[in-house]
Amino acid sequence: MPRKPKKTIIGSVQEKCPYCSGSAIVKKGKREKKMEIVQLWFCADCKKVFTPQLVKGKSFPLRVIFDGMSYYNLGYSLENSCRFLKAKYGLAVAASTVGQWIEEYRELCTYRRMREYAMRRYTPRQTLVSATLYHRQVYTFRYHPAKLELLLEEDFKNEPLYRLKEFLDNVSVECPHQFFREGVRASEVKAKFDMERVMIREKHNFANRLAGLALQAVQNNKERHEVLERFMLANDSVTVAVEVPIYFTPEDLEHMKAVLGFTIPLTLEKTLTGHIDIVQVRNGAVHILDYKPGAKKEQPVSQLTLYALALSRLTGLKLYNFKCAWFDENSYHEFFPLHVVYKKQKRSRVKTKKA
Questions:
Q1: Burial bucket for residue 104 (CB in 10 Å: 0-12, 13-18, 19+)
Q2: What average pLDDT does this structure show over 92-106?
Q3: pTM of the full predicted structure?
Q4: Nearest 5 degrees, angle CA 15-CA 19-CA 25?
Q5: pLDDT: is 160 or 42 the higher one?
Q6: Which of 33, 183, 235, 310 could cross-link with 273 by S-S, CB 3.0 to 4.6 Å?
């Protein structure tokens, strides 16, 4: 007999009311659907009961829908995608249904236009490279070589970034794991950078929209990063790697200070380490992204700048080629790490006497 799929509770994570943006919310029962249980919430400010899911009217749970789309975009056929869903969730999904999901979300899931070209070079199993990294805690590095290869070829602005591909190609086999066991984490370092002339631009872009969609399938706080990272890597057209391990030695730090003239208010006795949530390639730049719930209240400029310095050193790319950002479902905050560590001196005009 086929196993009966276990119902999971969706929507246990919620920070504010979708109607009035109030934070005075409490759990108020559950609504049982055919294939899942949805958490209900009550807002004390506007007195409304709501569910966190904005996508409604679906017969299948959102996590099933998003996994089906991801399998297809990784290069599997509609039929094979359905077989994977059956094995994972015990649910029988028709190929036509998966096709409808893909069509419905085609505006956000932009990798679809690249899928055909990637399949000419990579099999579905080759499309996604992953490695489990035991670095104090467990991280899963994932990399999309097909997407990065196409991005480097289709836009001449991206061509100088080929060194990023060389680095990511070798992470799985050449990562110096001892640095991560013995070193100091970048997220724990408090470097007080000079923020003069550093412009932090706040905007709303595709990353916010993708987060707003993917995170509706999250069951608890611990899942947020992995669910979002996997969804973006499989379905958008610019995310090339997630949970990327980086390290920065004391010798690297001295080189950047003495040779490059960077102002880095930090001294190191051990190697600095970290894991970048999301790496994207677009518009001729490498974008280092950090998902931060409640992004408006955060300002991880120091951490992201250290990530950029480390990745610059590991790839040999200029810091000029990097942008950093942190985001959530509602806001996206972007800055240039070069402006944090290097202040271009203003030239003084020399007055000449008239003869």
A1: middle
A2: 95
A3: 0.84
A4: 40
A5: 160
A6: 183
